[in-house]
Structure formats: structure tokens, C-alpha cells
Specification:
Blueprint: H1 7-19, E1 28-37, E2 43-51, E3 56-60, E4 66-72, E5 78-80, H2 88-92, E6 100-102, E7 108-109, E8 113-116, E9 119-122, E10 131-132, E11 145-151, E12 154-163, E13 174-183, E14 187-196, E15 200-201, E16 205-207, E17 224-227, E18 229-233, E19 246-247, E20 259-260, E21 280-285, E22 293-299, E23 305-311, E24 315-319, E25 325-328, E26 334-336, E27 342-346, E28 361-362, E29 368-378
Antiparallel strand pairs: 1-2, 2-3, 3-4, 4-5, 6-16, 7-10, 8-9, 11-12, 12-13, 13-14, 14-29, 15-28, 17-20, 17-22, 18-19, 18-21, 21-24, 22-23, 23-29, 24-27, 25-26
Bound molecules: alpha-D-galactopyranose.
Alpha-D-galactopyranose binds near residues 107 and 317.
């Protein structure tokens, strides 16, 4: 900076920097800018949160989507570690749920059907015979209202969306609040809250595709993964859990000790063979108490970036980006299979049809709460 600058000069420079959307990564702050309009003409805003500790996250009101997440490596160099698109149009097109909030029900419900209180419900079947991630127009494709929040030690964004009774076939008006917080200690914390006026299944999650080497860095198979799970849920050939819990011991699903994602991903093992192959299963976390506990830890040996996932949920879907098929992403990057991974904290898939699984039914008068923290560091 020009050392001859006066106090006023500095103030003006800061105001100009702020107005132009530039955010100083050394200070905590929230910036808002326009990000375009949906096909129906709804305005979409982008909020950029900076935590003063080197992290910056961009979240837009369409789908509550995390469009960018800048994290420092072991040398302090930042990279954007989530896959995505440069413009709203990319997300309005065929996005594989990049960065999105997922609801009303994360993952699959078999044959798009369930029974609740002796009534039969029919959902939209948008994934073969099944319903995936809420249906054709899930929470990832809705515009949420947003309110910036500033608290001690964090900046955040409170998003609200009310899902109408009957939307995508689900019963009850469901009022949802999702609060993203970027904390001073480099955590992206997500608190989910919901209330309904009729009993309904609910399973909210977040669908960022991470690549800790940078969104444009290629394969994630060298990342080292630990998942705090002794069992996982085997699935049938439409990816619906069979209902059995299978021990991870002596299977490629054993991530109890850290190992590279790629080591056994091509193993000759029934559960890895489904088209087009790879990990896409719910791991049953050791912690089933609903307390916030470490569910997974991923490290990229090259950059030194580490991501820990803490969650109150009983499960986490580990998806190794198997369906990425040359998606034209941010800054000219092209995303192929296994170029990003997801860790979606959640209750188990198809729980509304599987009475032995922990219940996902929210009743009137109850409050649905869930918390997940993606915590970053470098080693
Ligand atoms: C989840 C599912 C996957 C896939 C992705 C999105 O992880 O389990 O099968 O649908 O979302 O492509």
C-alpha cells in the first residue's frame, strides 16, 4: 500500500475494495452480490463469507449451494476445494448436486413409495425406480431466503425455505432453517432445523464434492480417508440398502484406519461393481447418540490439507464421484469420475421403508435438528 496514503485515502480504498466485491481474507466479513436469475425470474444472491484465518466460502441462495470454498494448504496457499460452476446457469443445468442442500429426503427411497400412519404416499421417481435427493425439484433447486449473521468467532448465513404440503409427494408443510457458519478456527458448520404440521420423512444433508488438492486437481484416489464406522449398508442393484448391516472388516469398506481412497476401489467385491463402480454407500457411524462426534477425516498428502467431518447424524454416505462424466466446471476445469468425493451426513437411505433403521419421521410439535461441521487444517 502507498505509504503516503492518508487516513481518508485508506478509508476510501477500503470502501472501493468492498464495493467492488473484493474481500480482504485477513478480516472477518460478509459480502453480498447478485448471482443472476432462475428461469422463473427469481433473483439469486451470492454471499461471500471470510473468516480472517485464511478461509473464504461463497454460498448462493439457489439451493443453498456452496459455490466455492477456499482453504489454505500447509504453506498457506489457498485453493478452492469444491467442484462447481462459474455461473448460475451451470447450476440451473444438469448439476450433479454440486455443493447443494439436499431435502426433503437425502438419498434414496425405494420405488418412490412409503407408508406412514396407514396412508400410502407416492413420490416422484427420478432415479430409476427410486426417489433420489427429494425428487425432481428438491431443496437443491429452490431459492432460499437469506440473512447474514455475525457472531463472536464466526460469520454466517441463515437460510430459510418452506416446503409446501404435497411438494414432490411429501406430506406436511415443512419449515426449514439451515445456518451455515464459517468459524475462526476454519470450520464450515451447518445447523439444520425443521418443523412440520403433518408427519413426514426428513433427511437433510449437504452435497459438496471435495478435492482437497483443489477442485481442478484431478483424481481424489490419493486422498487418505478415515471413517469412524465398523459397519456399512450393502445395497441392491438399484442402490437401496438390503436392510443388513455388514461389518467393514476384511472388505474394501474398511476405513477404520486411514487409507488411500484408491487402494481397493477397483477390488473384485460385489458392492463395488454396480454401474459405474466405486464407493457410494452409507457407513454406519460408531457414534449413534446424536452428539457431535468425529465421523470422518480426509487428508491430501500433496497439499497437506485435512478435512474432518463432525456430525450428529448416525450415518455418512461416502460417494467417490463415480457418475462424474466430463462435467465442464469452474475456470475451464473438466470433472471426470473420481475427481471429487462427497461425505453426506445423514440418516440411512430408504429409512421410511425400513422399520429397523433409526426413524426419519418428524411429527408435528417436534423439532428436527442436525449439525455437521467440515473442519479444515493442514499438516
Ligand atoms: C449421492 C448418491 C449417489 C449419487 C450422488 C449424486 O451420493 O448416493 O448415488 O446420486 O448423490 O450424483
Amino acid at each position: 500500500m502507498d505509504t503516503k496514503m492518508t487516513g481518508w485515502g485508506i478509508l476510501v480504498a477500503l470502501l472501493v475494495a468492498t464495493a467492488s466485491g473484493a474481500v480482504d481474507a485477513k478480516t472477518m466479513g460478509i459480502e453480498k452480490s447478485a448471482f443472476g436469475k432462475t428461469a422463473e425470474g427469481e433473483a439469486v444472491d451470492l454471499y461471500t463469507l471470510t473468516n480472517g484465518s485464511g478461509m473464504r466460502v461463497g454460498i448462493m441462495t439457489y439451493g443453498g449451494i456452496v459455490v466455492s470454498l477456499e482453504v489454505p494448504d500447509r504453506d498457506g496457499n489457498s485453493a478452492d476445494v469444491v467442484l462447481g460452476f462459474d455461473t448460475l446457469d451451470g447450476y440451473l443445468g444438469e448439476s450433479p448436486y454440486f455443493g447443494a442442500l439436499i431435502g426433503r429426503y437425502g438419498n434414496r427411497i425405494a420405488n418412490g413409495r412409503f407408508r406412514l400412519d396407514r396412508k400410502k404416499y407416492k413420490l416422484v421417481q427420478n432415479n430409476g425406480p427410486n426417489t433420489l435427493h427429494g425428487g425432481t425439484k428438491g431443496f437443491d433447486k429452490r431459492v432460499w431466503s437469506a440473512k447474514p449473521i455475525r457472531e463472536d468467532g464466526s460469520v454466517g448465513l441463515r437460510l430459510r425455505y418452506t416446503s409446501a404440503d404435497g411438494e414432490e409427494g411429501y406430506p406436511g408443510t415443512l419449515k426449514c432453517t439451515v445456518t451455515y457458519r464459517l468459524t475462526e478456527d476454519n470450520g464450515l458448520k451447518i445447523d439444520y432445523l425443521a418443523e412440520t404440521d403433518k408427519a413426514t420423512p426428513i433427511n437433510l444433508t449437504h452435497h459438496s464434492y471435495f478435492n482437497l488438492a483443489g477442485h481442478d486437481a484431478g483424481s481424489i484416489l490419493g486422498h487418505e480417508m478415515m471413517i469412524a464406522a465398523d459397519t456399512f449398508l450393502p445395497v441392491d442393484d438399484t442402490q437401496i440398502p438390503t436392510g443388513k448391516l455388514r461389518s467393514v472388516a476384511d472388505t474394501p469398506f474398511d476405513f477404520r484406519e486411514p487409507k488411500a481412497i484408491g487402494v481397493e476401489i477397483n477390488a473384485d467385491y460385489d458392492q463395488l461393481k454396480f454401474y459405474p463402480g466405486g464407493y457410494d454407500h452409507c457407513h454406519v457411524l460408531r457414534n449413534q447418540d446424536g452428539d457431535l462426534a468425529l465421523g470422518a477425516r480426509v487428508a491430501d498428502p500433496k497439499s497437506g490439507r485435512v478435512m474432518e467431518v463432525y456430525t450428529t447424524e448416525p450415518g455418512v454416505q461416502f460417494y467417490s464421484g463415480n457418475f462424474l462424466d466430463g462435467v465442464a466446471g469452474k475456470g475451464g476445469a473438466v470433472y471426470y469420475e473420481r475427481f471429487g468425493f462427497c461425505l453426506e451426513s445423514q440418516h440411512y437411505p430408504d429409512s421410511p421403508n425400513q422399520p429397523a433403521f433409526p426413524s426419519t419421521i418428524l411429527k408435528p410439535g417436534q423439532q428436527y435438528t442436525s449439525t455437521t461441521v467440515y473442519k479444515f487444517s493442514a499438516e
